Amino acid sequence: MVQKYTYTLNVIWSCMIRDIRSMLTDRAFTLVGILTPLNAFILMSLFVLAGTQAPTAVVMQDSGPYAQQFYQSLSATNGFKLQIVSASQATSLIQLVEL
Q: Strands, E, within 1-99: which ranges?
């Protein structure tokens, strides 16, 4: 049993050493490996900030407690500007946006 853990630790250690050597010798790849997730993080942050209070039409065809709880949860996020409309109003709003 101890031998299995020793082998596993040796594999982990060897992979770590190989990755560190690769990082130190191929700096361009390291830079790309760091900048790509950082760029994705910045873009997602901008999307979140720009998407606050997005106008959203909600067609409520259910007056049960789960539907009300779902609506309250959506309105509590401050990410949507909710507006309850009928199905025909929602269709006309979608057609307005498509123009």
A: 54-59, 80-85
Q: Are residues 38 and 68 in the same domain?
A: no
Give how many domains the chain has, as a whole number.
2
Structure confidence at residue 11 (pLDDT): 94
Of 36, 33, 38, give the one whose Cα is nearest residue 23.
33
- Residue 42 pLDDT: 92
Token readout for 20 is: 């560190």
Residue-wise over 65-80: b if at least 16 C-beta within 10 A, else e? eeeeeeeeeeeeeeeb
Res 52: pLDDT = 65
Q: Residue 53: left (phi > 0), alpha (psi -120 to 50), or beta?
A: left
pTM flag (> 0.70): no
Give the domain extent around 60.
52-98
Measured from the Cβ of residue 57, the count of other Cβ atoms closer than 10 Å reads 19
